[in-house]
Amino acid sequence: MFGYVKPNPAELYVREYEFYKSVYCGVCRSMKRTCGRLTALSLSYDFVFLALVRLLYAPGGTQCRHRCIAHPLKKRCMLTDSAVLDLVGREAVLLTWHKIRDDLADRDCGFFRRCALRLASPVYRRGVRRGGLNSLSAVCEEKLAALSELERAREASVDAPAQLFGELLGAVFACGLEGADARVAGQVGFHLGKFIYAADAAEDFAADAASGSYNPYVLLYGGRALSGSARAAVRCGLLLELEQMEKAVQLLPFGEQKGIRHIIENILYDGLLRRISFLEEDGGATGKETTAV
Fold first, then answer.
1. Which uninterrupted H or E stretch holds 202?
2. What pLDDT is attached to residue 286?
3. How far apart are CA 124 and CA 130, in angstroms?
4. Which terminal Cβ of the chain has fewer Cβ within 10 Å, N or C?
5. Do 258 and 59 form a contact (C-beta atoms < 8 A)?
6. Alpha carbon of 60 to those of 80, 119, 187, 245, 250: distances in Å?
7. Cβ contacts of residue 241 below 8 Å, gap of 6+?
8. Which residues contact 74 (CB under 8 A, 6 or more apart)?
């Protein structure tokens, strides 16, 4: 999920940040058990947000301390025995597998990256088979294929590709839920997906303008460096998407789970905003005046 969905640890209570990290370690442990040990190498903290949302619908799990290969000298607190974390781990492997396939089909993928992806591909293909989730995999394949079509057609609007990526993440967040629960979780994922796609395109503006890679903002603004007013317009669009996401988050069944609520709100109101702070700076989309060659 591009490294966007993280909290601001400085604004969390110590026990909340420890729980956040224990969920990450729990997802990592679940990925190893359900899909194969090597699949955990791709795990990012972004998937903790997905796990936190789903834990609201199926609370549970046991917090205990374990050693792992990444931290062999000191035991770390991990959330275990949770069906939610098993599901999130399988979803993480599935999304990584589809990302690998998508990158391998990208003509702009460099030689060394392509070699690395080809080495990783069998690991994640086996992980996807072990993890199941065939229906969700079909949705991912459909949305990514449609997204590739838009990219090949050089779609000059960010709305259409962002919509597809939002629909993909909406299906991921709602997987296994029914009725109103599926609609609410799906809307959180949908608006988060639209935000991530648009924010990532804005952050990659300068690099994509220089390389000629597909970027809807580059096409929309003709490859010119983003002016202050253009950055403000992009930021406004992203804030509107977060506003829609906020409405869905307010419908989540927090109940008495105040810790999870505080972490999710920290990510929404602080972490995601900090992630797009580059749009407030002078210069191009990454804070530097860069024009296409």
1. helix 179-203
2. 42
3. 10
4. C
5. no
6. 9, 36, 24, 25, 22
7. 191, 194, 195, 198
8. 67
CB 27 within 8 A of CB 47: yes
Cα–Cα distances in angstroms (integers) from residue 104 to residues 44, 113, 118, 164, in the given order: 20, 9, 8, 20
Report phi then psi at 44, rounded to 5. -120, 160
How many other β-carbons are positioned within 10 Å of the β-carbon of residue 139? 16
- Residue length, the chain? 293
Tokens 């057609």 label which residue?
153
H or E element: which one contains 73?
strand 71-80
Query: Do residues 241 and 198 lie in contact, with contact meaning Cβ atoms separated by under 8 Å?
Result: yes
Which residue is associated with the tokens 């639209």?
194
DSSP letter, residue 282 = S
- For 156-213, write each residue's pLDDT tens digit: 999 999 999 999 999 999 999 999 999 999 999 999 999 999 999 999 999 989 888 8
80: Cβ contacts below 8 Å, ≥ 6 apart: 26, 29, 61, 62, 63, 64, 66
3-state DSSP call for residue 56?
coil
SS3 78: strand
